[in-house]
Amino acid sequence: MRRLPAFTAATALTAAALVLTACTDASQQTADGASTDEASAEASFDPSTVEADEEIAAMLPKEIADKGTLSVGSDTAYAPAEFIDADGKTPVGFDIDTVSAVAAVLGLEADVQSAAFDGIIPAIGSKYDLGISAFTITDERTAEANMISYAVAGSQFGVAAGNPDDFDPESLCGTTIGVQTSTIQDDELTEATTTCEEDGEEAIDIVRYESQADVTTNLVGGKVQAMYADSPITAYAVEQTSGEVETAGEIRDAAPYGIVVAQDDEELTEAVQAAVQKLIDDGTLEQIFAGWGSEDVVVDEAELNPAE
User: Fold this and answer.
1) Cis peptide before 80 (omega within 30 of 0)
2) Residue ranges per domain, the chain?
3) CATH code, residues 4-9+154-254
């Protein structure tokens, strides 16, 4: 099914709910190789404050409970959802806090392992117990794995300051757009460029990068006219480049993020879903996202495989 309407209508998300402040020590380089001057502050949430829930923990598969950890795959190059802190080794971000809190409810520790984005879901149930990486829940993904909703985000374009190429988010054909490979935005641009060609217009030049940091760097460096990413990520790029990037157009395509669990692991799925719901109900998940400037994105219900 085409998603062309996603590029022609603004989503009814409140932009203020997704505007992020610079809440951590992350480093990102501009095209000339210089590091941006970033705010030095810590997110307010401490996962160690979350107490285990014995009833929910009892839902775990025995092998997971005995192991004492949850192995979690995450593409740690998508600030502020998940990225590597200034020490060069510690994963941080709102997804990292979320999965750490889920593990704590279950009486476990989260072992977050950096992984290529498109390799995480295929490895769920074998290499990883869970996946969390700002995964938008789609029918294609829930055909491969279970996904438990925890937050909602839209998509937004970003351009270099002043929009030097006069990029128009409502007229994409013939433009050059940077995107992280295998994201929902990559899928949407692929469908949009097919429509351009079917209509006899010039295709979109989609420039794919393995990391969002590379997308942002090449936007600032003038190698692409625009970037397309989840709205919190685009807003964060604006903050972290000290204004070298600005948003373009409205936030669009509101959709839930999901924690990924193997389809055949019913016990772990139910335990994680219950843990997420507890974190929603007691306000912990809102606290986590508030620490990253986005408390209003938390869902009311941790749904399993909600339809698109």
Assistant:
1) yes
2) 4-9+154-254, 54-153+255-295
3) 3.40.190.10
- From 292, 286, 235, select the one nearest 41 (Cα to Cα): 292
Give the DSSP letter of residue 83: E
Helix, strand, or coil (residue 138): coil
State the pLDDT at residue 245. Answer: 97
Beta-carbon contacts of 198 under 8 Å, excluding residues fewer than 6 positions away, are none
* Six token digits for residue 239: 């903050």
Crossing angle (nearest 10°) for helices 231-240 and 212-220 = 50
Give CA–CA dist 191/184, Å, rounded.
11
* E strands in the chain: 69-74, 77-78, 82-84, 91-92, 109-114, 130-131, 146-160, 176-180, 205-209, 226-230, 245-261
Could you tell me which residues are beta bridge partners of residue 130?
Answer: 72, 261
Q: What span, in angstroms and rounded, lies between the C-alpha atoms of 212 and 68?
A: 32
pLDDT tens digits along 106-143: 999 999 999 999 999 999 999 999 999 999 999 999 99
Is residue 213 within 8 Å of residue 183, measured between CB atoms?
no
Predicted TM-score (pTM) of the model is: 0.76
Instruction: Name the burial class of residue 256, with classes exposed (0-12), middle (13-18) and buried (19+) by CB atoms within 10 angstroms of its CB.
Output: buried
CB of 243 closer than 8 Å to CB of 161:
yes
Is-same-fold flag (4-9+154-254; 54-153+255-295)? yes
**Under CATH, what is the fold of the domain 54-153+255-295?**
D-Maltodextrin-Binding Protein; domain 2 (3.40.190)
* 275-292 residue pLDDT tens: 999 999 999 999 999 888
Buried b (16+ CB within 10 A) or exposed e, 43-59: bebebeebeebeebbeb
